[in-house]
Design brief:
Elements lengths: L3 H10 L3 H8 L11 E6 L18 H12 L6 E4 L1 H9 L7 E5 L21 H6 L4 E8 L5 H18 L3 E13 L2 E4 L3 H12 L8 E6 L4 H5 L6 E4 L7 H12 L4 E6 L1 H4 L6 H13 L3
């Protein structure tokens, strides 16, 4: 059980406890099979709080409880989140021995007139290096009719270069996107659009030596993943439909090179039957085999 009152008290009375805890955190080696299962929890920072239409991620106590369950399961390699969430997990010791990926650009708030302005408002490369995180993740949406996409590409490219110079993983999440109306941006999830986004994202930065991709599971994944040699983590998205169908689609995609694991948030933290441990165990078995 996470003591929320104690977390707040420590933040009030001893803010230095956070950088001190980063300095003493026990880092994790990359799994021997080279594959990763990461739990994603950076949705709230973009104002994306809903799960199957309900604002379930708005309850931070409940979210942290679910993250604690997930991170305790065998086969879970780490977590991807913004500083506020990672620091809560850090202070209660849940990041020891885990891969930690900092979410970097959260400025494009869901439903806003500036949603496609994916500027970097969370982690920067300097902090990722200072706190010895394992890498940084950047959302890279490209809307061909939005001039702001040029700035997103430039910022993502600079982050890839700087992370690589520090030997840190750069996890790039690309989409071709369209604004359907003032309050709705839609990511294009047809195979050809995903393939085009891969080609754009893979070339960002001065080197791809430390670049991994974060991609949706869509139709024709054999053809989609043939578009790159970069290690690729498959994302879960807002869970819809039957869980068994979702797991089957992950399993099929994970069998295709260069798929190297999963980075999933809501589908594992808020499964239809609310059994977080069971959902996470299924994903761990898909990524690493029998644990």
């Amino acid at each position: 059980m996470i003591d929320i009152a104690d977390l707040t008290r420590r933040r009030i009375t001893d803010p230095e406890c956070i950088p001190n805890a980063w300095r003493t955190r026990q880092r994790a080696a990359r799994p021997s099979d080279g594959r990763l299962l990461l739990i994603a929890a950076d949705h709230p920072a973009r104002g994306a709080l809903t799960v199957r239409g309900e604002p379930r991620m708005a309850d931070r106590r409940d979210l942290l409880r679910r993250l604690a369950i997930a991170l305790a399961r065998p086969g879970v390699d780490g977590v991807l989140a913004t500083p506020d969430i990672l620091e809560d997990l850090l202070l209660v010791g849940l990041l020891d021995g885990k891969q930690v990926i900092g979410s970097m650009n959260r400025g494009g708030l869901q439903g806003s007139s500036f949603e496609l302005d994916d500027r970097f408002t969370a982690y920067d490369v300097t902090t990722i290096v200072t706190h010895n995180l394992d890498g940084g993740k950047m959302l890279t949406r490209v809307a061909l009719d939005d001039p702001g996409s040029a700035a997103t590409l430039e910022a993502s490219g600079a982050a890839v270069t700087a992370l690589a110079a520090a030997g840190k993983l750069a996890l790039v999440e690309p989409f071709l996107s369209e604004r359907r109306d003032r309050h709705r941006v839609e990511n294009l999830l047809d195979p050809d659009s995903v393939i085009r986004s891969i080609a754009i994202a893979a070339a960002l930065g001065a080197t791809s030596a430390y670049t991994w991709l974060k991609l949706p599971v869509v139709g024709e994944m054999e053809r989609v993943l043939a578009a790159t040699t970069l290690p690729t983590l498959l994302l879960g998205g807002d869970p819809a439909g039957h869980a068994d169908t979702t797991y089957a689609s992950w399993a099929a995609a994970l069998a295709i090179p260069p798929a190297a694991g999963l980075v999933v948030g809501r589908a594992l933290l808020y499964p239809p039957d609310d059994d977080v441990a069971a959902a996470v165990d299924i994903a761990a078995d898909l990524v690493h085999g029998a644990i």
